[in-house]
C-alpha cells in the first residue's frame, strides 16, 4: 500500500475522473490537486511529470520513493500503486 | 445454451467492448430486458464524447451539454438498470461455438454475444516534432491539457467540427490561436461562424502543417506551407493541438476472423449490425460507414441491443420476417 497518492487534475479532464474512479474501485485513497482551482500548483504537476498534461498521479511509497504516472494508463498505474 | 456455473466459468449474456455512447445506450436496452451485461472500457467512460468540450447537436439538450456531463448521464442511466462497467481492456476475442471467449486485463470472460463499440481516437499527423514533443507541447485532448496554456499562444491543426469546437474551448486559456486548415474548412456552418467571430482565432485556410519545432524541450513554432503560393509559413507558438480526423480502435481484432474495411472499420451484414462472426455485433464510430455522430452511435447502440436480444432468443427480428 502506498504512503500517499496525489493526483493533479482539471475540471474538464475525463481521464482524471477515470484515474479517481479506478483508484476508488481498488480501495486506494488519494489527495486531489485541481489546477483549475489552484493554478499556482500547476508547476508542481509539470515538475513531477515533465509534461504539460493531466492527470498526473504521484505515488509515494512507504520508503518515500516516488513513481509518476501521466494519463489514464492502467498498465503503469496498477504496478505503481501495488 | 451454455450453463452458468462458477464465476470463472460464468457466461455473460453480452459483453460490450467500449463504454462510449453506443454501448451505454445498448446497455440501457439490454439490461432493461434482463440481459446480463458487462462493458469493458480501457479509456474514458463516454469515449471521445467524454473528452469533447461541448456537444450542441445531441437531441434533447436545447442549450447543449458538456461531453463530460452527457457521458456521466449515459453511464448513470445504464448502471441504473444493472449494467456493470469493468475498467480494463479486451485484447482478443475467439468464437468457441456455444460462447465467445474474451481475453481481458481482468482475466478471461465468456459471453453468449458481444457488442464491439470501441469507437475511434484522434489521428496523428506524422510530421517531424510531433512525437518528440508529445504531451510536452503537442496534444490531442483540449479538455485535458488546455489549462496548461493560460495566457499562451497556440496552434490548432484541423478543419472539422472537432478542431473548431476545441479551438473555441482553448480560447478560455490561450491569448491567440492560429487554426491551420490544410484544405477546406469542413466544420458545421454554425461552428465556422463562431470561430470566425472569435477575435482570438485566426484561420489559415490552405495551410499544411509540415514540422513542429522546439528548443530546450519546449515547442516554439510550427512550420507549414501556404498551398496557394507554395511559400513556407511559420507560426510562433507555445503548443499545438491536433484534431485531424479519426482512427478506428480495432487493433485488438488483428488476427481475428472479423472482417474490416480498407480503413479498419468493422463490416456488418446489412440489417442486423452483426459481423461475419455470429453473435458479434458492432455499433457506433467503429462500424464501417459510421457517420461519427453521438446521436447516430446511440441509435445504433439501441438497434444492436434489439438484434442481440433476438440473437440470444434464437430468432430473427419480427420486422425482418
Textual characterization of the structure:
The complex is a heterodimer of chains A (82) and B (321). Helices cover 34% and strands 24% of the residues of chain A. Chain A has 82 residues and is an alpha+beta fold. Chain A has a domain at 10-64. A four-stranded mixed beta sheet of chain A has the order 2-1-3-4, with helices on both faces. The mean pLDDT of chain A is 93. In chain B, the strands form five sheets. In chain B, strands 1, 2, 5, 6, 7, 8 and 19 form a seven-stranded mixed beta sheet that branches. In chain B, strands 10-17-11-12-13 form a five-stranded parallel beta sheet. In chain B, strands 14-15-16 form a three-stranded antiparallel beta sheet, with no helix packed on it. In chain B, a hairpin with a 2-residue loop joins strand 14 (207-215) and strand 15. With 321 residues, chain B is α/β, with parallel strands linked by helices. Chain B folds into two domains: 11-121 and 246-320, FAD/NAD(P)-binding domain; 124-242, FAD/NAD(P)-binding domain. Chain A binds chain B through residues 10, 12-18, 21-22, 25, 35-36, 39, 42, 46, 50-55, 70-72, 74, and chain B through 42-46, 50-51, 53, 66-68, 71, 87-89, 105, 135-137, 139, 141, 143-150, 169, 239.
Shape of chain B: elongated
CATH topology value of the largest domain in chain B: FAD/NAD(P)-binding domain
Tell me what portion of residues of chain B adopts beta-strand conformation. 25-35%
User: How many helices of chain B?
Assistant: 7
The helix/strand class of chain A is: alpha+beta
**Strand count of chain A:** 4
Oligomerization status of the protein chains: heterodimer
Helical percentage of chain A:
25-40%
At the first level of CATH, the class of the largest domain in chain B is Alpha Beta
N/C terminus separation of chain A: 6 Å
The largest beta-sheet of chain A arranges its strands as 2-1-3-4
Distance linking N and C termini of chain B: 23 Å
Shape of chain A: globular
Q: Report the biggest beta sheet of chain A as strand number plus sense, adding barrel if it closes.
A: 4 strands, mixed
Helix and strand element order of chain A: EHEHEEH
Major sheet size, sense and barrel closure of chain B: 7 strands, mixed
Binned, the helix content of chain B reads: 10-25%
Amino acid at each position: 500500500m502506498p504512503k500517499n497518492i496525489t493526483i493533479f487534475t482539471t475540471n474538464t479532464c475525463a481521464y482524471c475522473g477515470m484515474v479517481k474512479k479506478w483508484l476508488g474501485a481498488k480501495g486506494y485513497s488519494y489527495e486531489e490537486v485541481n489546477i483549475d482551482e489552484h493554478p499556482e500548483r500547476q508547476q508542481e504537476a509539470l515538475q513531477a511529470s515533465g509534461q504539460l498534461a493531466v492527470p498526473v498521479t504521484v505515488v509515494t511509497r512507504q520508503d518515500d520513493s516516488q513513481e509518476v504516472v501521466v494519463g489514464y494508463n492502467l498498465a503503469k498505474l496498477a504496478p505503481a500503486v501495488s | 445454451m451454455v450453463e452458468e456455473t462458477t464465476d470463472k466459468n460464468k457466461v455473460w449474456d453480452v459483453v460490450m467492448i467500449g463504454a462510449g455512447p453506443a454501448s451505454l445506450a445498448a446497455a440501457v436496452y439490454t439490461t432493461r430486458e434482463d440481459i446480463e451485461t458487462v462493458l469493458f472500457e480501457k479509456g474514458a467512460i463516454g469515449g471521445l464524447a467524454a473528452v469533447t468540450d461541448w456537444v450542441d447537436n445531441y437531441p434533447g439538450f436545447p442549450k447543449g451539454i458538456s461531453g463530460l456531463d452527457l457521458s456521466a448521464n449515459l453511464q448513470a442511466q445504464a448502471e441504473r438498470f444493472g449494467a456493470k462497467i469493468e475498467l480494463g481492456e479486451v485484447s482478443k476475442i475467439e468464437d468457441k461455438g456455444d460462447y465467445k471467449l474474451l481475453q481481458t486485463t481482468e482475466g478471461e470472460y465468456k459471453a453468449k454475444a458481444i457488442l464491439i463499440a470501441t469507437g475511434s481516437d484522434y489521428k496523428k499527423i506524422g510530421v517531424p516534432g510531433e512525437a518528440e514533443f508529445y504531451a510536452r507541447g503537442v496534444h490531442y485532448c483540449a479538455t485535458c491539457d488546455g489549462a496548461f496554456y493560460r495566457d499562451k499562444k497556440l496552434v490548432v491543426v484541423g478543419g472539422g467540427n472537432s478542431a473548431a469546437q476545441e479551438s473555441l474551448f482553448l480560447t478560455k486559456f490561450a491569448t491567440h490561436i492560429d487554426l491551420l486548415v490544410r484544405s477546406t474548412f469542413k466544420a458545421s456552418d454554425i461552428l465556422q461562424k463562431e470561430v470566425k467571430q472569435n477575435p482570438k482565432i485566426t484561420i489559415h485556410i490552405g495551410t499544411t502543417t509540415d514540422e513542429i519545432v522546439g528548443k530546450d524541450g519546449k515547442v516554439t513554432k510550427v512550420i507549414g506551407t501556404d498551398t496557394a503560393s507554395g511559400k513556407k509559413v511559420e507560426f510562433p507558438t507555445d503548443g499545438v493541438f491536433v484534431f485531424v480526423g479519426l482512427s478506428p480502435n480495432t487493433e485488438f481484432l488483428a488476427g481475428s476472423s472479423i472482417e474490416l474495411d480498407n480503413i479498419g472499420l468493422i463490416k456488418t451484414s446489412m440489417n442486423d449490425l452483426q459481423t461475419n462472426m455470429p453473435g458479434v455485433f458492432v455499433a457506433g464510430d467503429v462500424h464501417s460507414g459510421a457517420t461519427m455522430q453521438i446521436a447516430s452511435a446511440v441509435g445504433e447502440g439501441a438497434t444492436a441491443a434489439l438484434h442481440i436480444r433476438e440473437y440470444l432468443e434464437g430468432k430473427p427480428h419480427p420486422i425482418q420476417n
